[in-house]
């Protein structure tokens, strides 16, 4: 391209500055995020000028100066995403660690995220109430009644945490009990996931304590980040609570008539994560189509309801490299949410054996299979298939469930195979353990199972599906082939990016280091794209963003 015909924006002279032309110096210049860059025309071609003296709007000819043909401003990691999201949640960075179920999204992860100015969500799904309350005790200091709310001072780095609230269509009593616990303990932020529709419980959580301030504004102490992959579900979270649910809550005395009236002016969720092709519950939607669709939903909802609270959309699913993080922000994501990659980090609530399996995964090493919590409905989750036979065995159980009306109808040969290879005990013994489990948690399940052989079979099969994730988290060596490891294709992309670097080793994968590298890489990618859009040819060597050690990140960015 002939740049001599371009009208210069001004002139640049060295005056102690420098010009980068070769790939190594270009990479160094772009990576210096705080320094503005000038694209200057030299006898050797276009270069990137740092420092020196820039004069804009002048056509004066100076043999010691170079014409400026473009500008790349500083890009700070702290400025990626929506500023109101950082302000409302007291964050430094628009980065969220997802609520990986069964405590895989651990208290340790939440603490590390919080300490580094990010948002960590504890993975409550699949855990008993006592275990969830233990996490609350750890993450919320005694006597503290707010967490994740806008009234948290920005200097309070210990409180940038939330807790998962997963939809439980087959156990609404559990969903209610979890909400009761959160309200009793003052949990102010939840990630609502896997919802097929709004329930009275999620609405009750959101509207608990809603009131009008003296200045007339409506205050909602509790916040919800809704994680969705379907527009029909998202539209319900980006709208006021339905009148039918409000009426139920008023009739039960769980909401006053005045609060129900105020509820008509606020969305059920102010923040929504567009969950693309992710691990666990997913519709395998491509992020390139899902995120713009949910952003358009946000705009329609904002126009329709005129909420005083801004509606925001984040991106999740497939975010595992600087390029994917940069793409999400470039498409308008208010924040990014990372799950599968965080599971592979040392602070996650799984075992070293699983972390090693994840470190060896490639993008094609994942598949869909039946899930435990919505087994009867045929709902599937995305899991790792490399190194485990769980996906095939789970699919076999669903096939048997569909074919027969109860365990007594299963042919003897088929039943023997299941008992020997999957359950390693008799189905009667599994039913006995299932009865023990539900006797205190939900006795109605036992009664229904004893009346309905099909339901009894579902509960027995769900025993294996539930235990498989526990075996994986605890690292039960005798059950390695039965490990259920929730994982999306992002894991393979992350492994490819980190191949040959210090992050290739599972022991070096710390959540804060990984998170900062993704944000740092996204900022570099944004600078590279600015260069390309102004006609600067980026050398291929300069376009690769290598992971940086925690020591380098600390010295350069105070991270």
Structure description:
By secondary structure, the chain is α/β, with parallel strands linked by helices. Helices cover 42% and strands 15% of the residues. It has an 8-stranded parallel beta barrel with strand order 7-8-9-10-13-14-16-17, surrounded by 5 helices. Strands 2-4-3-6-1-5 form a 6-stranded antiparallel sheet. Helix 11 (322-330) packs across helix 20 (511-533), helix 16 packs across helix 17 (443-451) and helix 16 crosses helix 18. The longest helix is centred in the last third of the chain and has 23 residues, at 511-533. The two termini are 40 Å apart.
Structural class: alpha/beta
The percentage of residues in β strands lies in: 15-25%
Biggest sheet statistics: 8 strands, parallel, barrel
Strand order within the widest beta sheet: 7-8-9-10-13-14-16-17
**Are there runs of 5+ residues with pLDDT below 50, and where?**
145-158
Mean pLDDT over the residues:
92
Helix count? 21
Portion of residues within helices? 40-55%
Instruction: Give a count of the beta strands, DSSP E runs of length 2 or more.
Output: 19
Principal-axes geometry comes out as globular
The rounded distance between the terminal residues' Cα atoms is 40 Å
Give the radius of gyration: 26 Å
